[in-house]
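Course assignment 3, question 2. Fill in each field.
Student: A.L.
Task: Predict the tertiary structure for the chain below.
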Amino acid sequence: MRTRTALGAAGELLAWWAALAVLWLMLISAVYPLEFAVGGGAAAVGAVAARAARRAVTER
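Answer field:
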């Protein structure tokens, strides 16, 4: 993987993670450390799935 491609992938994953983490934080009533950790993990899984889905659709 080229450096530019790797940076683009990392940027895309970070953008997805940030968007999903903010959505998680908006939907919960109180932010406790455990909920923040669970939300961050769920956002990371969602970011990987979103990138994989986008790549599956656009790289044909």
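Instructor remarks: Helices lie at 3-27, 33-58. The radius of gyration is 14 Å.
Grade: pending
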